[in-house]
Design a protein that fits this description.
This protein is an alpha/beta fold. The chain is 37% helix and 22% strand. One of its GO terms (cellular component) is polyphosphate kinase complex.
């Protein structure tokens, strides 16, 4: 019998492998220069969140009582060491990409990102004046007070200064205003900029007398996010873990990133001044918070340094339609972002808000945009006397505050607002509109794979189905009845709804393929999702593989299944696409001996999505929509430009075409495919 380790890849290590694919994009010279810089920013942002959430969780779990820890089959200390080993290797690669590739490429394009030692006399004069006018009043000096540790804010930048008297002090680096990057005077078409860090370092003597300073190095402290144990453990076990933890201090240090050049004796003093342990100290580069590079501007306006702009493809059915209801009543409509505009969704809600025949609008919002046409339309619907019911997930990680603010706004305007259900997050992306037609209420639905968010729809690859199919709309009414506390559970026959029936229905669909394979019939499973982690689903896929079912998976993020292992998963192939846009759609296709069944929705095959979240997955019933979505799925499966093989070694090798001229880049090919429709 195989052990857990032999059956499943560590979720955390697989996630780090995904972030390595992001780093590969920063290294890939096929990407324009400023896009490579953005991939460095994405990698950095991802890693910050990983430490705030996952590493924080491991650090806390190692403190719980041993009997409970054994039940979790976890070795947190061992895993933390492995994480730090992988991250250290990736950080070294990160530094090489930035300093040995990006910086020289910028210079070739007459863009110089320089440090204070490279300042010309004019730059020095500019630096001095800029510091006095823009920075001096915002910079703070922090010193240890008696036995109290210095408190550094989460994610903020600081300099650690070792003074001649061996004392360590800290200087804050304000970045929000005037920004992380400061433009310096240009000469003869050559552009210069610097980090705000360098301006402060150049003027450090205005804060601490230069004769007192021995060493100056940059540091950044990350602190715990709130523990989200319910994402991984069932309610009872999660509660036991919470109760087992010794009075947990929220916001305690998770890691201190320090400049690798910092001498060991100084590192020890910094560690003591901040009250940290050895495991909290993580070597980094000269600069931290590379996510700030999202805001790094190209002073040359050189189009060759950026991705070519791509105009959204017009939707064949909806683009010229004055009456969406008539079009959708006649036939299901499918939209794809960012290939098509999110405006189709917003216009549908705006139309409903202003239509006298529309009586009710119900929607679930997981990540609410700070401002959008969609939220404006919902508020207008309330003003126009519609019954507006909004379910807002108050526990959407890192968006809690914004979601609650919007919830209060909707409530004040007169909408009925519902918040989180205890121990269950509402992750579904659903909309239901009821309209009076021929003295009866007719229902229209939208079910998507992505959030109702116009901003993310420009960079996330998602799909959305508009339908008036009665089987689907009746089921969706039942889901909203449950969210409104009108029913104990959703009563659905067509939709797959977590945690009610999606696991059971997916298992039955896989069992059907196993049975067909055993009879020598056509049997194949093709699925695309963000992440694959649920052990029961993975074991079921292993069973299907051993029965002879062909399994082809497209997984963007982490994958805990071990593909291609002899006598375990010989018939399973897994690949991952990381490219210009973030793959976010979930599609499930079952061969069913030639009578294919396809589903689309908000759920990955993760335990939290199947058992602890409200997720809605819809069958694709319209033949034309089925063909369209299937076509997109197979374009992605045949990507030979930005697709990587996911293997048991986590090697992340690119899938290459036989001839370079035949390379297929799926995210570009889909534009052509939709134009051809």
């Amino acid at each position: 019998m195989l052990s857990e380790k032999e059956l499943f890849v560590s979720r955390d290590l697989s996630w780090l492998s995904f972030n390595e694919r992001v780093l590969q994009e920063a290294k890939d010279h096929r990407n324009p220069l400023f896009e490579r810089i953005k991939f460095l920013a994405i990698y950095s942002s991802n890693l910050d969140e990983f430490f705030k959430v996952k590493v924080s969780q491991l650090r806390q779990i190692r403190k719980i009582r041993k009997p409970l820890r054994k039940r979790l089959v976890l070795q947190p200390n061992k895993k933390l060491k492995e994480i730090h080993r992988v991250v250290k290797k990736q950080q070294e690669e990160f530094g090489n990409i930035f300093f040995k590739e990006i910086i020289p490429e910028l210079v070739k394009n007459n863009i110089h990102l320089i440090d204070k030692d490279q300042f010309s006399p004019e730059h020095k004069a500019f630096s001095s004046e800029f510091f006095k006018e823009k920075l001096a009043a915002k910079v703070t000096l922090l010193k240890p007070m008696s036995k109290e540790n210095v408190f550094l804010e989460d994610g903020k930048l600081y300099f650690a200064l070792l003074l001649r008297n061996e004392e360590v002090v800290f200087v804050s680096i304000p970045t929000e205003e005037p920004g992380r990057f400061i433009e310096l005077p240009a000469y003869n078409g050559t552009y210069y900029s610097t980090f705000v860090d360098e301006i402060i370092k150049d003027n450090i003597s205005a804060i601490v007398a230069s004769e007192e300073i021995s060493e100056v190095y940059s540091v950044k402290l990350s602190r715990d996010a709130e523990l989200y144990l319910d994402d991984e453990y069932d309610g009872v076990l999660a509660q036991q873990i919470y109760e087992s933890l010794p009075q947990r201090k929220t916001g305690q240090a998770t890691r201190l990133l320090y400049d690798t050049a910092m001498p060991k004796p100084m590192r020890k003093k910094v560690k003591e001044a901040l009250g940290l342990g050895k495991v909290d100290m993580v070597p980094g580069g000269k600069y931290h918070n590379f996510s700030d590079f999202f805001a790094f501007q190209d002073p040359t306006a050189n189009k060759d340094l950026h991705f070519e702009s791509q105009e959204p493809v017009t939707h064949q059915g909806l683009n010229s339609a004055e009456d969406y209801f008539k079009i959708i009543a006649g036939k299901d409509q499918l939209v794809h972002f960012p290939y098509q505009s999110f405006e189709y969704v917003q216009q549908f809600i705006e139309l409903a808000a202003n239509d006298p025949k529309v009586k009710t609008i119900k929607i679930s919002l997981y990540r609410v945009a700070r401002q959008s046409h969609l939220t404006d339309a919902l508020l207008r619907a309330v003003e126009n006397g519609k019954e507006v019911v909004i379910f807002i997930e108050a526990q959407a990680r890192f968006d809690e505050e914004n979601n609650i603010i919007w919830g209060r706004t909707f409530e004040e305007k007169g909408a009925r607002v519902y918040y989180s259900i205890p121990n269950i997050k509402v992750h579904s992306k659903i909309l239901l509109i009821e309209r009076e037609e021929e003295k009866k209420l007719k229902a229209y639905a939208y079910i998507g794979t992505g959030n109702f968010n116009a901003k993310t729809a420009k960079i996330y690859c998602d799909h959305g189905l508009f339908t008036a199919n009665k089987d689907i709309t009746n089921d969706l009414k039942s889901v909203f009845d449950f969210l409104e506390r009108k029913a104990d559970h959703p009563d659905t026959k067509t939709l797959l709804v977590s945690p009610l029936n999606s696991r059971k229905r997916f298992t039955a669909l896989i069992d059907n393929e196993i049975e067909n394979a055993s009879k020598g019939l056509r049997a194949r499973i093709t699925a695309k999702m963000n992440s694959l982690q649920d052990k029961e689903m993975i074991l079921k896929l292993y069973e299907a593989s051993q029965a002879g079912v062909e399994i082809r998976l497209l997984i963007r993020g982490f994958c805990c299944l071990r593909p291609g292992v002899k006598d375990l998963s010989d018939n399973i192939e897994v690949s991952s696409i990381v490219d210009r846009y973030l793959e976010h759609g979930r599609i499930f296709l079952f061969e069913n001996n030639g009578n294919e069944k396809m589903y689309m929705g908000s759920a990955d095959w993760m335990t939290r999505n199947l058992d602890r979240r409200i997720e809605v997955i819809t069958p694709i019933l319209d033949k034309d929509v089925f063909t369209e979505l299937r076509g997109i799925l197979f374009i992605q499966l045949n990507d030979t430009f930005k697709s990587r093989i996911i293997d048991d070694e986590q090697s992340n090798l690119y899938i290459s075409p036989l001839k370079k001229s035949q390379a297929l880049r799926s995210q570009y090919k889909i534009f052509d495919y939709l134009k051809a429709l």
